[in-house]
Amino acid sequence: MKKFLMAFMAFALMTSIACNKEDEEAGQPGEITITTSVSDNVVTYTASATDAVKFVWDLGNGETPTGTTVVGTYSFPGDYDVKCTAKGREQDRVKSITFNVATGDPDVFNDVNTLLCGYNDATGESTTSWQWIDAENMMSNGPRNYSGDTVYFNVIDDSWWHNTTGEPQPDGGLDDDYSFKLNKTMDYVNNFNTEFVVSWGWAAVRGYGSPGIWEDMAYTGYNNGSSPMTSSWTVRHIADLNDTLKFETYVNGTMKPGAYVIELSNNSSLGMESAGYNYQILRLTPDSLWVRMDNTSPDNLASGGFYTQADLDGEGIVPGDPEYLYLRLARKQ
């Protein structure tokens, strides 16, 4: 009996060792513990789990690092779904948490961006829409002096805004408004109410017939002509190119060094359809936005059959000759 008991115990021990070895080879990690530490918009995550051979993360912001300790950077405040996968030898274990980031990237939430979109710290909402100023000189061709090295320029002398060459806004164009959103997709909304302001040269080339100098007309270029049109936006800061070519931008009462350029995606437009989709900010205050854009007439304007050379000569237009259009918008009340 004693010998039998000892044999049984030896067998049980061997079985236990075998099972433990089998479990170890299966290697599913134990429960995952996640700890966090926060510095502004940067979050450090640390995971622990027994028998884990590797940790793989999805930080909810597009970053998918690996490691026991990883760091995530968040551009915008809000809730992010974070997932940690503890890899085992044959099986994995997953843990998900929702983490709230209270502070956005200061480079995104700078004074130019927040002023442009009317960002409200208390609500986290962008509250500003821009529309045409219903006044003389709200748009103009402006001076044609420019640097051949760059399309950007210094806006120190704005006396040209006081000239009388500004074109009147077409009927119906004043119902358009334009807004910028500080959110995860950086939405730009052109709410043109089915009638979109176009400049004559580009409207013709893009298939709108032969409008006048400025027209407010049915727009079918995007979203099957529906309104509004949504794309994304960013503001690029451009430092001085050299010692003689320096930039300054008027922002809310002060001159900031460098040029600030609004860049729109999806061929979207601010104010009206034109040659380019980059808009240099000249002056920006809570109530007024002045921009410059490229309105150079396309090279194929005459050859496209929309205008004769006599038409172009009568307007003083040379296709391909640089021309910059200056727009003045007001905060929508």
Write the layout of secondary structure elements.
Blueprint: H1 2-26, E1 33-39, E2 42-48, E3 54-58, E4 69-73, E5 78-87, E6 92-101, H2 111-117, E7 119-120, E8 125-126, E9 129-132, E10 139-140, E11 177-180, E12 187-191, E13 195-199, H3 200-205, E14 214-218, E15 229-238, E16 248-251, E17 254-257, E18 259-264, E19 278-284, E20 288-294, H4 309-315, E21 324-331
Keywords:
333 residues, mainly beta, Immunoglobulin-like, eight-stranded antiparallel barrel, three-stranded antiparallel sheet, 4 helices, 21 strands, 14% helix, elongated
**Average pLDDT, all residues:** 78
Give the proportion of residues in helices.
10-25%
Based on CA inertia axes, which overall geometry fits?
Answer: elongated
Give the SSE string. HEEEEEEHEEEEEEEHEEEEEEEHE
Précis, in short:
The chain contains four helices and 21 strands. It has helices at 2-26, 111-117, 200-205, 309-315; strands at residues 33-39, 42-48, 54-58, 69-73, 78-87, 92-101, 119-120, 125-126, 129-132, 139-140, 177-180, 187-191, 195-199, 214-218, 229-238, 248-251, 254-257, 259-264, 278-284, 288-294, 324-331. Strands 9-11-12-15-18-19-20-21 form an eight-stranded antiparallel β-barrel.
Descriptive report:
Helices cover 14% and strands 36% of the residues. The protein has four helices and 21 strands. The chain has an eight-stranded antiparallel β-barrel with strand order 9-11-12-15-18-19-20-21. It is elongated. Residues 4-25 and 145-150 have low confidence and may be disordered.
